[in-house]
Specification:
Structural class: mainly alpha
Number of strands: 0
Radius of gyration: 15 Å
Protein name: Metal-dependent phosphohydrolase, HD subdomain protein
Domain HD/PDEase: 19-98
Organism: Streptomyces daghestanicus
Order of helices and strands: HHHHHHHHHH
Helix content: 55-70%
Largest sheet: none
Length: 188
């Protein structure tokens, strides 16, 4: 039986690598960030890495139905790929997606179909996503938020959503970094 990551990487690659190579690089970078915080995830390290590499599959042209990539990706994973429920839920709610769902009028659908995973895991996935550039290299959440705002425009739906989400994104990053620091202080 393959691990979640052994299953997730080829699926994400098949959906993103050819039509959206930059998005694929981003997903690989987000998964790499997940590996860097594995020490705070215990048995959920594989789960988080799988969700990280899959988090943006909803952008794939064949999957984009609503135009809201967390919902489109989660529905595909649930309905077509028969994915692990926890991976599906992490993809659905990654990086404060509920705030974007509010702006799109899709919050009831998102919350009704997909329960949130623990704050610990949601924080971790948000941290990984918001500390990775579109090209997959490390960054920090302030620069990432500025990059997103610049790419979409400050008055766009995405620009407004990301600014609204900024305090929570920064708080997620702080909570993850605090957990990493505490784990590193623990004796072996």
């Amino acid at each position: 039986m393959p691990t979640l990551t052994e299953w997730a990487y080829p699926l994400a690659e098949s959906l993103l690598a050819e039509p959206l190579p930059r998005r694929w690089k981003h997903c690989l970078g987000v998964a790499e960030r997940a590996r860097t915080i594995a020490l705070i995830l215990d048995q959920d390290a594989d789960l988080l890495e799988a969700a990280a590499v899959l988090h943006d599959i909803g952008y794939a042209p064949d999957l984009a139905k609503t135009g809201f990539h967390p919902l489109d990706g989660a529905r595909y994973l649930r309905d077509v790929a028969d994915a692990d429920e926890r991976v599906v839920n992490l993809v659905a709610h990654h990086s404060c997606s509920w705030l974007e769902a509010d702006a799109r009028g899709l919050r009831a659908e998102l919350d009704g179909e997909f329960p949130r995973e623990s704050e610990h895991l949601n924080d971790a996935l948000c941290y990984c996503d918001m500390n990775t550039t579109p090209d997959g290299t490390p960054t920090n959440p302030v620069d990432r938020i500025n990059e997103i705002t610049g790419r979409y425009g400050p008055d766009s739906l995405i620009g407004k959503f990301i600014r609204r989400a900024e305090p929570e994104i920064l708080a997620c990053t702080c909570r993850v970094l605090e957990r990493v620091a505490a784990a590193k202080r623990q004796p072996m």
